[in-house]
Amino acid sequence: xxxxxxxxxxxxxxxxxxxxxxxxxxxxxxxxxxxxxxxxxxxxxxxxxxxxxxxxxxxxxxxxxxxxxxxxxxxxxxxxxxxxxxxxxxxxxxxxxxxxxxxxxxxxxxxxxxxxxxxxxxxxxxxxxxxxxxxxxxxxxxxxxxxxxxxxxxxxxxxxxxxxxxxxxxxxxxxxxxxxxxxxxxxxxxxxxxxxxxxxxxxxxxxxxxxxxxxxxxxxxxxxxxxxxxxxxxxxxxxxxxxx
Length: 244
Known about the structure:
- The protein is mainly alpha-helical.
- The protein has helices at 17-31, 43-50, 54-66, 84-99, 103-124, 127-141, 148-163, 168-187, 197-211, 215-242; strands at 70-73, 77-80.
- The protein has two domains: 17-86, Arc Repressor Mutant, subunit A, CATH 1.10.10.10; 101-242, Up-down Bundle (Four Helix Bundle (Hemerythrin (Met), subunit A)).
- Helix 4 (84-99) packs across helix 8 (168-187), helix 6 (127-141) runs antiparallel to helix 7 and helix 7 (148-163) runs antiparallel to helix 8 (168-187).
- The N and C termini lie far apart (55 Å).
């Protein structure tokens, strides 16, 4: 049986069925602090608590299963998976897409989060963090064009800054945002973009500042770097519009 929790499922009075059921189930899983392998209440119990039909609950559970939050076993029930945190990260990605947020809004959100994350990384990064950051930096510096290899190393560099905060929530949020950007960049006209000195040089400067524990300089460099990123995206957007 699942742990009892102070979080209470409340009846859904509108016929918004699956979406509201899905949202409440996500909140229930988080608030109940369920661990991998624990079983959720039955579809019948969930439907009664939510005040919706079992089909609505079943559809909501299918969404959670599709992104790896839960797994269904015939004759046994629905169970929490071993990677719920990462799964909810993927759920966040789906949510951002569903909200219809523009790429510029995602970039603005990134700017709000990553500047402070970089400051924190300057204080908390350990030797392993620095080694991983440098490895991705060397990958970027080894290529001369905006190739898939460069893109992957670039995105990994920024994910690693999130990890270097040693705050699991910040790391996950940053990874989710970077995942969205990487997917979009992979489909953009990146073959038309040269790697500029700013592109490689700013990453080298950021790494050096983090290595030197200079939080003030890291903040300044990250702001400049992300502003450049916004301008790059504006170019990509205009190129895309021109090709319509």
